[in-house]
Predict the 3D structure of the following.
Amino acid sequence: SEDGYIKANSNGTGAETVDDYNNSLALGTGFDGKISKTILSFDTSAIPDGAVITRAYVQVTYNNMSGDPFNGGSNNIAIDIKSGHFGNLVSLETGDWDAAADADGIAEITEFTSGTKNSSDFNSSGLNGINKTGTTQVRLRFITNPPSSSTYLFIKQGSYAKLIVEYTE
């Protein structure tokens, strides 16, 4: 209930939650012309309180794609972070679509069409956004909305989506 994707009209209105589609999470523009963003939730409470986080990144696994949401490599996936949760609840809700992040654009995922892909390393704001006492959520979105309907990427959820955190004590 904490991972999923949210669809909204191309202007960001009319958000609606969608848990998953065949255990896949959508990014881009669907057949209905609505734009999708994905929320991933991670329990980061095992990180010791005194730890210094030195590196973090997200790893996702390709499921399928329609069209070219990466626009020939010129459109990456941006990652936003929230210490705790977007919106009012930990579970997915419509307010997650445009809820304030602790930091926007902390890392990017470049074009891929199979296998797994690591994001770039989180910037310092992203590292500071990791919650050592509970949940950390990330929101994945294309930097520029794909130009036409049915231009989207589906990534696998569950154990296929990971937040890798390195730290020193």
Notes: Helices lie at 124-128. DSSP finds one helix and eleven strands in the chain. The first helix runs from residue 124 to 128. The mean pLDDT is 94.
